[in-house]
Write a structure and sequence with these properties.
α11 packs antiparallel against α12, α11 packs parallel to α13 and α12 packs antiparallel against α13. Strands 1, 4, 5, 6, 7 and 10 form a six-stranded mixed β-sheet that branches. The N terminus is likely disordered. Helix content is 52%, strand content 11%. The chain has 374 residues and is α+β, with helices and mostly antiparallel strands. β2, α4 and β3 form a beta-alpha-beta unit.
């Protein structure tokens, strides 16, 4: 399952210790009118009479866990969603999905009422059995402290290949030191621990590090995310995952998936650079087609357009040269781009030569350079 990372921020000084504190909220959150179709509509309806962020989170959590059915047919699906909205549309229309749907719906509802949320991806340990599939869950920040919960597991569980819909409230607002005993993120920053455990520790159920202070600054790493683009975020994430140790197939798959994102983003960057180069080149050609007449563009600017065009195309070429994807479609795209770059570089070189000749030609006879096309 692919993941999308977001924020959830809550301010409150007290966490209710059990579901009895939420009896009235749970009763009010059991259902919503059938005419509510969007996450925003649902989120606002569920929280309309609530003021405390924790109560709002509870209402959204309770409604999702009681009204979204787990779609066991998608359990081993390899479907890749284009964006979070596609996931939301699917779960809101069908009222069912897998963990990614639960987590994304929760996030969207919270966001609609001014509560930010994290969506975290990783894998789990249930009764000593390591999960063989990726899993997604949420986290909240309350009064400067992180708490986690699993709406999917709260809604029900699998038994002998069948889904049993049965509410389990023990997955609501759990501290990171407890949550890590059953859920481990791929990226250690989402453990919210100053001394994160390794994946090897998790597989051995060795949580001795939890009592040992350290200085892993996950908070700064999380804050930095909003200032990074997808490429930078994914590179940093993959580096952190690798440093934490690649000890199972889940991690290998995640690193490989991230690497595909990195390659795709670098390819997209290369395409953007190439297109910018074409834009500058086209400005030059537009003026050349007018024989550089009736234009405010100076000779220096004309040379500048060719220069920046060449620089952008060469940067695109350099970026492509370091890509070596294990994907036939990406390799084909890269090969096509390389052909286009070769052609573009040749065109720019020809125009460079033309401008040299043009500037070294006596002005009264420059007009004849255009008629010969040289």
């Amino acid at each position: 399952m692919k993941r999308h990372i977001h924020f959830l921020f809550l301010l409150i000084c007290f966490l209710p210790a059990n579901s009895e504190s939420y009896t009235q909220i749970d009763k009010q959150s059991a259902s919503v009118p059938t005419n509510l179709k969007t996450a925003s509509e649902i989120g606002h309806y569920l929280t309309q009479n609530l003021t405390l962020p924790t109560d709002k989170v509870r209402a959204i959590y309770y409604w999702i866990s009681h009204n979204i059915k787990y779609d066991i047919t998608k359990l081993n699906s390899s479907k890749i969603y284009a964006n979070p909205q596609e996931i939301l549309d699917e779960v809101l229309q069908n009222r069912q999905g897998i963990c990614q749907h639960y987590a994304e719906l929760f996030h969207a509802c919270c966001k609609s009422v001014g509560i930010e949320s994290f969506i975290i991806s990783g894998y789990t340990d249930q009764a000593g059995e390591l999960g063989k599939l990726s899993h997604a869950w949420n986290a909240v920040l309350i009064n400067g402290k992180f708490y986690e919960f699993d709406v999917t597991w709260a809604a029900g569980h699998l038994l002998n290949g069948k889904y049993i819909k049965e509410f389990d409230d023990k997955y609501f607002l759990i501290t990171p030191t407890e949550y890590i005993k059953s859920h481990i993120p791929y990226d250690p920053i989402w453990q919210f621990l100053n001394n994160p455990i390794t994946h090897k520790d998790f597989q051995k159920s060795d949580f001795s590090k939890l009592n040992i202070p350290s200085n892993f600054n996950f908070s700064d790493s999380i804050k930095l995310l909003s200032r990074l683009n997808l490429l930078e975020r994914t590179i940093r994430e993959n580096n952190r995952i690798k440093r934490s140790g690649i000890t199972n197939d889940q991690l290998r798959k995640q690193v490989a998936f991230n690497q595909q994102i990195i390659i795709t983003e670098k390819l997209n960057t290369s395409v953007n650079l190439f297109n910018k180069g074409i834009d500058d080149y086209n400005v030059y050609i537009l003026n050349k087609n007018k024989q550089f007449k009736n234009t405010d563009v100076t000779e220096e600017q004309l040379l500048g357009y060719l220069s920046t065009s060449r620089q952008q195309v060469e940067l695109a070429e350099k970026l492509l040269s370091i890509l070596n994807p294990d994907n036939s479609d990406l390799n084909r795209q890269i090969a096509d781009m390389q052909k286009s770059i070769i052609k573009m570089k040749s065109d720019i070189k020809n125009e460079d030569n033309f401008m040299v000749k043009y500037l070294n030609t006596w002005k009264p006879v420059r007009i004849f350079l255009f008629t010969t096309g040289k």
